[in-house]
Amino acid sequence: MVAPVTGPPPEVRPWAVVVAWRADASTGSSLDHLLGVAPGVAVALVDNESRPAGLAAALAGRATVTALPQGENRGFAGGANAGLEHAFGAGATHVLLLNDDVRPEPGCVEALVAAAGDDGAAAPLIDAPGGEAFAGGRIDWTRGLAGHHAGALDYLTGAALCISRSAWSRVGRFDEGCFLYYEDVDWCVRARDRGVPLRLAEAHAHHAAGSSTGGAAGPTWGYYDTRNHLRFLEARRGRVAARREAVRTLRDVARLRREGGPSAVTVAQLRGVLDWWRGRDGRGPYPPRAT
Which comes out higher in pLDDT, residue 208 or 7? Predict the structure, then answer.
């Protein structure tokens, strides 16, 4: 007969990791909000392509925040890896990964930790402008396209993703070859492959979507979303399926150009297809490098 487990439950030690690009005073406002709604949570700020003046403005009066400046822009994937490795190395049991423009509501962090449990990962319901609100994620496996779909659990958004230590140990790092977009999709699919549960929490957050990338209609989105969905499809269904999707994407882009679609975005999409064909990954031509 197995003896019952006695003693107090293991201590929960949550961290929040905020990933920013060229942090500034507006990042500090987001940190203030996070510190206000989750005062017992350790917070780290990963600042991609960090600038001393901007980082100082972001941290002014916020001595409890751990700064993790990155000299280069490692993208969301690289910034997330830097922050998660630091937090778990410091003893975190759970880490909430956040875009710097996501603001959790009171109680959100606690609900996410509870939903993730000891073995999984969890995301909140996210209010956002346009079509960026999140209440679940679905993958079109024929085309390799991932999109928000209420109640679906093919993947969870990386904009606000709580990862347990066990899940991180089993799944590993985000794919830095993505740089930006689809790194969360890839990580969640690998998590599902390894039996890590993905859950939606009864928790809410607000997202000023795309504030650091020009939004989900700008050239940065156009390039990485195009390149990386082809990259994801190739990894999952092979080169032939990805080539078919690339041709379809080129036809869609040509139609948008004929209809007068934004030229900067369509050019970025064309570059995304070309760079996928060439096998280029990691940081691409967007956003522009610091001068």
Answer: 208
Task: Return the domain boundaries, the chain.
Answer: 14-207, 219-278
The listed CATH number (3.40.50.720, 3.90.550.60, 3.20.20.70, 3.30.465.10) that belongs to domain 14-207: 3.90.550.60
* Percent of the chain surpassing pLDDT 90: 86
Which pTM was predicted?
0.93
SS3 of the chain: the string is CCCCCCCCCCCCCEEEEEEEECCCHHHHHHHHHHHHHCCCCEEEEEEECCCHHHHHHHHCCCCCCEEEECCCCCHHHHHHHHHHHHHHHCCCCEEEEEECCEEECCCHHHHHHHHHCCCCEEEEEEECCCCCCECCEEEECCCCEEEECCCCECECCCCEEEEEHHHHHHHCCCCCCCCCCCHHHHHHHHHHHCCCCEEEEEEEEEECCCCCCCCCCCHHHHHHHHHHHHHHHHHHHCHHHHHHHHHHHHHHHHHHHHCCCCHHHHHHHHHHHHHHHHCCCCCCCCCCCCC
Tens digit of each residue's pLDDT (9 = 90 or more) over 139-179: 999 999 999 999 999 999 999 999 999 999 999 999 999 99
